[in-house]
Amino acid sequence: MLAAAPRLRAVLMRLAQAVPVVAGVVVISFLLTRALPGDPAVYFAGVAADEASIEQTRVAMGLDKPLPVQFVHYVGDLLQGDLGQSLSSGRPVATDLANRLPASLELTLTALFLAVVIAVPLGVLAATRPGTWVDHLCRVLVTAGVSLPTFFTGILLIYIFYYLAGIAPSPLGRLDFIYLSPDHVTGFYLIDAALMGDWETWRGAAEQLVLPAATLALFTLAPIARMTRAAMLTALSSDFIRTARAAGLSGGTVLYRYAFRNALLPVVTTLGMVFSFALGANVLVEKVFAWPGIGSYAVEALVVSDYAAVQGFVLVMALLFVTLNLLIDLLYTVIDPRIGFDAQ
Amino acid sequence: MTDLTSRRRFLKMGGAGASILPFLRAMPASAQGSDTLVVVTGATINSLDLHRTGTSRASYQVGINCYDRLLTFGAKEVPGNGLSYDYTVVEPELAESWTESDDGMTLTFRLKPNATFWDGRKVTAADVKWSFDRAVSVGGFPTVQMKAGGLERPEQFIVEDDETFVIQLDRPSKLTIPDLAVPVPYIINSVEALANATEDDPWALEYLHTTPAGSGAYKVARWNPGEQLVYERNDEWVGGSLPAVQRVVIREVPSPATRRALIERGDVQVAFDIPDKDASELAGTLDVFSTPVENCIHCLCPNFAFEPFQDPDVRKAIAYAIPYEAIFKAAAFERGLPLWGGAEEITDIAWPRKTQYYTDLDKAKEHIAKSGHADGFDVPLSISLDLASWMEPTALLVQEALGKIGINVTIEKIPGANWRTAVLVEKRLPLHLENFGGWLNTPDYYFFWAYKDGHLFNSSNYRNEEIEALVDATLHMPMDDPEYAPQIKRMFEIALDELPRIPLYQPALNVATNGAEGYEFWFHRQLDVRVLKAV
């Protein structure tokens, strides 16, 4: 059966290849968290803890056992789907991540959508009209996007649109306090609110998304626009475009059916990279907009040496990237049928 | 609580009629009624149970607002800074009255007969005992804090009848009564807790972590860790006068710039624990309270384990070289109180007090010349990255000043996670900044933690036999004992002469309000929402 469905076989192969990667991540994240400076027992024993209560805390946390024993316990729990208990939040890491990952994904995906909608046409335009004002606009936007740190853009946007103009909602996270969060189905507020048919909440959530997503979009726009422009320039100067033009095909057909489609591959690759990068890098945006995302969760966990939370975060990110790479590879074959899985 | 609280249940909790949540869609944030207040803070509430290991400081507010203690403190005016709790006035909260036996060893509390938990059950002495047993048994911070008041073992807590609770002390202590009014010894609904306890978890730590079960002024209507906590008033509360506000929303906003924009726009009514810089800049336009934190001092600590600091002249040279005024301006933005340039003679027992030191480079040079280190030496000055907002400017100014007397300082920044281990547990930092503040507001209590050998906040490895004896003698002694004041003065004299901790200034807790009033400062440095009113 598998032989009859080469794509399915290839997908399964890729998944099998991911197993050693994930196993490696488990080992490395375990070792790295233990190598972190700082003593979580001291931290979590509290402000006025003495030697005895620090020791009690250490035993309660299982940190008095040797490393290999701790590792066996960790892997045993992991095999049962238990990511452990976060000390700082006091809840299972899986629950924390399930609450926070959708928040980050919702923000990142919206930002990426915004970025693509602006950057790809901009890149195409800039490539078809090099040296004109469109090209210059593209360059200015791209330079501004990469050179302004996200926390600065975020604060600037809050200052202009919330503080001065008063048109943006209070930067209070995913929803203003006057709304109740929608019932948890996917964790994406926009989707959950739509599922409930609660369009007021949907609007509230969407309004809260605008500024942080714009901040992040401005940052991710740059590589996408540059890559689109460069890929389009290469494609447009290729022989097959010259042939197509010589054959008298219309400008639109040449541009979109032949040049753009060929230029898409590097753009999709960049998109994948930008996505994984943005998901981790939006910590600062999360902080500025009080967004309860996975980035700030991981940073706070790192600061207090909350082992289980850090490991859970790394593991989830690893799984996410494995999936993402698989999706991108599959996308390649859709965009360019010449790329088969056999080649890999 | 988070996952369990369904939308429907939350609406029910909202109560009937007029008190429905203002989640009514058409209502803009700025137009909410006087029955809801919104507070922003940068800190995370990570548990609803203070007794649990790993509970963050910000979470203590749940212990204060949702639970009652037997006793509480009264309030007093602070000139120019609103209200503050009053350490000298102890008032009943769940207790109706209490008596002390003549030898001071037995305390008998009568509970308020009409006090009930949220589930309607009467508060009994058995609940008090269970809660106290829990605090002294779970270990960690609650147990240490209970011990400070002489409360160490479950056998000390006796249920006489439903409304009478007795504490048997090993020795009389002036710290016992105040220690009953700190956040730790709060009273839990033991029946509800026990129903949710397991064999592995006899104190229901897991259950109470997410589900408070108290009798306090506010219930927790909703808690999303890392996002918000919503308090809903308990109309049956008998612990004090009923709060004016029906609902208080605590929102976590990590970025101080965002918090500032929110409070300035008036979309939130209280910004709690704002940076000194924002406090000084907002003071002109908003109501800003900068209350000096009682019994708390920001210090520069020379560690006695580091050879040059064993020389008293080196320590004095440093004390005269420090640019106190510049530090107070750059690190504290003049919020708080200066602690330099006082009289040498000690006439009262107020603490923190102004030291006899001030910036005088000539004196500093004299002392360093007299010392065994006239040619100077190299030393790292350690600061915590978590506390960089005041430590970094302070360290830079100290570095510059000590350079002038030949002490070559390099600044060492330590990540927050390591700081406590390095400075308090291992006590290995030669020169560092420290900010201990004692909850119980007596000088002997401060000295107990910060000047006794081996104690946690004595990060200088200081030991002085006379101080050891004086702290032991005064710690439990009533403050009106004629022996007390002279011994405390002697303690001050030694500590300020030997300088294991060089006081820089007394910090302040800054709170800005815009549309709320009644803010009261507490030693625990958390927000008591029970006294807030909307304007």
TrEMBL record, chain A:
Q: Which InterPro entries match?
A: BPD_transp_1_N, MetI-like, MetI-like_sf
PROSITE patterns given in the database record: ABC_TM1
Query: Which superkingdom does the taxonomy of this entry point to?
Result: Bacteria
GO MF terms held by the record: dipeptide transmembrane transporter activity
Q: How does it sit in the membrane?
A: Multi-pass membrane protein
Q: Where in the cell is it found?
A: Cell membrane
- Alphabetized CDD domains for the sequence: TM_PBP2
- Annotated ranges, domain ABC transmembrane type-1: 101-332
> What keywords are assigned to this protein?
Cell membrane, Membrane, Transmembrane, Transmembrane helix, Transport
Predominant subcellular localization, coarse grouping: membrane
| Gene Ontology cellular component list | plasma membrane
Q: Where are the transmembrane segments?
A: 12-32, 107-128, 140-165, 205-225, 263-285, 307-328
A Pfam family it matches: BPD_transp_1_N
The similarity annotation says:
Belongs to the binding-protein-dependent transport system permease family.
Q: Which PANTHER family match?
A: DIPEPTIDE TRANSPORT SYSTEM PERMEASE PROTEIN DPPB-RELATED
* Protein name as annotated: ABC transporter permease
Q: Which organism is it from?
A: Litoreibacter roseus
